[in-house]
Amino acid sequence: MKRRRLSRHTLSNLEGMLFIAPWIIGFMMFLAFPLAYSLYMSFHNVRILPTGPQITYKGWGYYNEILFSGSALYDELIPFMQEALIMIPIILVFSFLIAILLNQKFHGRFFFRAVFFLPVIFSTGYVVTEFVNQGQGSLGFLERYHFDAYLQSYLGDNVWTRSMMEVLSRFVLILWYSGVQIIIFLAGRQTLASSLYESARIDGASPWAIFWKITLPAMVPFIMLNLIYTVVDMFTFPFNPIIKLIGVGNYGYNSALAWIYFSIIIVFLLLLLFVFRRITRNTYRA
């Protein structure tokens, strides 16, 4: 019996390794060396000369300059972080509700599923940039009815109000970035057996109670998965000011800024996961 269990466990690990082997091979072939070399350049001053690149050791100089001697990073990062804290819940809630609706049985549901996923195919960085440059992607009634003035009168003129107005001005684009999340939520919803809902209806549970007691708790792993994906997707947003800032300095400076930005993303992601786990743990205890 022990040998069979070990063999099954080994086979399961081998199957998992086979599934992720293409990603590992692709990472080692195309990404591992550029990442390692960018980390190397972040500690060096790189000058491109006619005779070739001239590399001199600089140590932690670029890191100290970015973190402690300048304010360009913080001037761009703090407003963007505030916008991200607003955009991420909007995308998750919107995609979750749309997935619940698309899971219902109605005529043309496959067409509407394709409609919500098509922006994922077409919304590349260049397409989105041109889309906005042509004046699209904003909610026109906000300016027409001076919604910003009403919002400032109730919330005051502060950084959070301005961040909220910035998010609302790109609200249509934010919905474009919900396609993958909708697919993940839809796949997660379809893993729930219909017998669970039939048993709940027989016991007299209301649709609202079924949602809170069955659907939402079962979708927690998919919410966490979409949270991770949305955070990474938002931090590579086409209008991300930090990404534009990375292309300003020299190779060493840009590499240091990129690694600092990467570290901030990891810390931000770990913080969100910690808060999310605490909230879900307290909910289950209650």
UniProtKB/TrEMBL annotation:
<keyword id="KW-0472">Membrane</keyword>
<feature type="transmembrane region" description="Helical">
    <location>
        <begin position="20"/>
        <end position="40"/>
    </location>
</feature>
<keyword id="KW-0812">Transmembrane</keyword>
<feature type="transmembrane region" description="Helical">
    <location>
        <begin position="167"/>
        <end position="188"/>
    </location>
</feature>
<feature type="domain" description="ABC transmembrane type-1">
    <location>
        <begin position="77"/>
        <end position="280"/>
    </location>
</feature>
<feature type="transmembrane region" description="Helical">
    <location>
        <begin position="209"/>
        <end position="232"/>
    </location>
</feature>
<dbReference type="InterPro" id="IPR000515">
    <property type="entry name" value="MetI-like"/>
</dbReference>
<dbReference type="InterPro" id="IPR050809">
    <property type="entry name" value="UgpAE/MalFG_permease"/>
</dbReference>
<dbReference type="InterPro" id="IPR035906">
    <property type="entry name" value="MetI-like_sf"/>
</dbReference>
<comment type="similarity">
    <text>Belongs to the binding-protein-dependent transport system permease family.</text>
</comment>
<protein>
    <submittedName>
        <fullName>Carbohydrate ABC transporter permease</fullName>
    </submittedName>
</protein>
<keyword id="KW-1133">Transmembrane helix</keyword>
<keyword id="KW-1003">Cell membrane</keyword>
<feature type="transmembrane region" description="Helical">
    <location>
        <begin position="110"/>
        <end position="129"/>
    </location>
</feature>
<dbReference type="Pfam" id="PF00528">
    <property type="entry name" value="BPD_transp_1"/>
</dbReference>
<feature type="transmembrane region" description="Helical">
    <location>
        <begin position="252"/>
        <end position="276"/>
    </location>
</feature>
<feature type="transmembrane region" description="Helical">
    <location>
        <begin position="84"/>
        <end position="103"/>
    </location>
</feature>
<keyword id="KW-0813">Transport</keyword>
